[in-house]
Amino acid sequence: MTNKEKVESAGGFDKNTFWKAVYVVLLVGSCLGFYWATTQTDYIWRWNRLPRYFYYTEHVEVRSEIEGEISSITKKGEDSVVIVKSDTDSEYYTVPGSDLTVTEGDFVYMGDPLGGYDEGRMGLLLEGLIVTVEVSMVSIVLGVLLGLFTGLARISTNPCLKWSAITYIELIRGTPLLVQIMIWYFVLGTIINNLLLKMGLFQIPELWFGVASLAIFAGAYVAEIVRAGIQSIHKGQMEAARSLGMTKTKAMAKIILPQAFKRILPPLAGQFISLIKDSSLLGVIAIRELTKATREAVTTSLMPYELWFLCGIMYLVLTFALSMFVQYLEKRTAEA
């Protein structure tokens, strides 16, 4: 504490506490002001409806696929087996539990319910969250690998590798991600799947074209981060390693990259966080990630305020968790 701060504290005035109080007042005032503004729009908040977008129970009906008579109903553990017999055929149906709507001797038509059961299902937002996490994690891993090799090629003395890396980096960084997603889905995706179809092979789902676009986009930025990290290590490190008999490749792997990794962790974390948020653009190619799932939920429920707030909070939780993980890695590498 400085002499000035000691004097202020002795006089009963703590500047630090005062500005903390100002922050709390501003935060509370902003929340109250927003709440008051929403009351002026005649909007009815329905927070109680949000849990069903994560998990809900649906009543599933077992329906007859033929027209005929219920010839028998038998128990099989906790389930009921219903046999429907027609003039030419017979079929049996398993109804979980004992919620039957028919009895023996009843006549049923095609499509008539025989019974039903409750089944837990994943909500729309939870499905979107899982897709977002999967797409982001795969894209991050692929982007790191691609960025590492491209960054090394960027500083290579081989003109082919160096120029190829520069072309890739400038091409990707100079065009919007949304345009790249469109090109991957409508152009490259169509060409690749048509070629696979002619060869009698499987078709690649649109999800993987979305992953490819994100990974290649992230790889270009990671490459520049890796290049800057490597070049920040003093040249004497490489010279000392070479003087000890190490090859250039071994010196890079054992000496340079471990030191560079500690320096590039913060910018890498920022790039990964941006990638998670950029995954929201995949909704334009019919991938039901979190943003698209929220948009569909808003369309059916007419609850834009609650659902978009919830969507933002879910993205915040993802990015905050990743930020905490990177900080943990920073501490571990600093101690090593």
UniProtKB/TrEMBL annotation:
Q: Which residues form the ABC transmembrane type-1 domain?
A: 129-326
Q: Which organism is it from?
A: Pseudodesulfovibrio cashew
| GO CC list | ATP-binding cassette (ABC) transporter complex
Keywords (A to Z) from UniProt: Amino-acid transport, Cell membrane, Membrane, Transmembrane, Transmembrane helix, Transport
**This protein is called what?**
Putative glutamine transport system permease protein GlnP
Pfam families associated with the record: BPD_transp_1 (PF00528)
The record's listing under InterPro entries reads: AA_ABC_transptr_permease_3TM, ArtM/GltK/GlnP/TcyL/YhdX-like, MetI-like, MetI-like_sf
The answer to whether UniProt assigns keyword Cell cycle to this entry is no
Q: Which GO terms describe its biological process?
A: amino acid transport
User: What membrane topology does the annotation report for this chain?
Assistant: Multi-pass membrane protein
Q: Does the keyword Transmembrane helix apply?
A: yes
Similarity section: Belongs to the binding-protein-dependent transport system permease family. HisMQ subfamily.
Job of this protein: Part of the binding-protein-dependent transport system for glutamine; probably responsible for the translocation of the substrate across the membrane.
